[in-house]
Amino acid sequence: MKKENIFSVxxxxxxxxxxxxxxxxxxxxxxxxxxxxxxxxxxxxxxxxQLGVKENTVNTWLNIYQNEGFFGLVNxxxxxxxxxxxxxxxxxxNIEIYLPYSKVQILKAIRDNNIPTTHTINDxxxxxxxxxxxxxxxxxxxxxxxxxxxxxxxxxxNGGGLNGDNISSNLPQALQGPLYQVYTWNNWTSSxxxxxxGVNNRFPTNxxxxxxxxxxxxxxxxxxxRKEPFYLVKYAVGGTSLAxxxxxxxxxxxxxxxxxxxxxxxxxxxxAINNLTSLGKIPLLKGVIWIQGEADAQNLNxxxxxxxxxxxxxxxLFNRLARLTADSYFQFILSGLNNTVPFPYFNKINQAxxxxxxxxPNIHYISNIGTSLQADNVHYDAEGFKRxxxxxxxxxxxx
Length: 399
What we know:
Elements: H1 3-7, H2 14-23, H3 26-39, H4 44-51, H5 55-68, H6 71-74, H7 86-92, E1 97-100, H8 103-111, H9 123-132, E2 137-140, E3 145-153, H10 155-158, E4 182-186, E5 191-194, H11 215-226, E6 230-236, H12 261-278, E7 282-291, H13 300-304, H14 306-312, H15 317-325, E8 331-335, H16 346-357, E9 363-366, H17 382-396
Parallel strand pairs: 3-6, 3-7, 4-6, 7-8, 8-9
Antiparallel strand pairs: 1-2, 4-5
Helix pairs in contact: 2-3, 2-9, 3-4, 4-5, 11-17, 14-16
């Protein structure tokens, strides 16, 4: 281990070292001493002998310091590798989160799993990291973070269909009542409410409806897995296209030219984010779930334009979402069409989604070929929604 390989990345700060030593455990103290001795020109073998550890152990500490700085030494676990992947870091380390400068940078890094985090913060570790944080850094607690998910599209996003299959009575009993720590934005009451099928799971309407979509299973599974509240902003209207639609009433498309659905959704999203901020939360967009395409699959011109409207155009859905959320790195989940829908250009819609998913590792295409439908061959039945919900869950649970 050459000294310049470490200290060209992390400048050794003697004051920070001394502050850490005041409250450090014996294990942490040894690691810090190893870094100081190395900084003073001591060899790895000398350090190992002085501290009574193996040379490999010293090299491990030096590598971790090189990769993560002082805070990487605070909570090394026996199973931690020299180059752990983000999910290993997430599960292993019990440390607070900090990154340079702005909340936006902090939230993006947390969301992209660039740094370790857990949901239980030890006060001693918090104090240590407060000393560690360089000038110009922010220190935040992840219990202040509100993980936000967007669900938008047309009827399959809302949970549409014949009102005979995907209804609450076909859900397990545990999913028919209020879902613990799963919240949905109600723009009519200007608040997040506990999500409950048949009560508040179909927006933007405010009419109780026993039909359900993917939000029920996805919401409760993500909350259970991540041990944190799930905040949903849902806006879905049946029969609506991504391409411009000349109908005036009802509002019928997501095209930017019309100023219809996306504008209305944007107002509700901003209201939801402002509400979380007013409660002292730091909203973090974890994913956008787009379940749509049936309307565009009925018209050749609309289907041919779908890739442009979804991703390529300056005013594409993706770019408008990026501007709305001030974030172009959110997880974008694209739900494809079933191959048995009675719309001739479904393959063009699916291919446009596949093409979009190749543009970024944060964009994901879900194939729904073979997903079971209701008798109308358009809307998913209860089993189909279960299958789609599980696919969405597996894509967003670790972000």
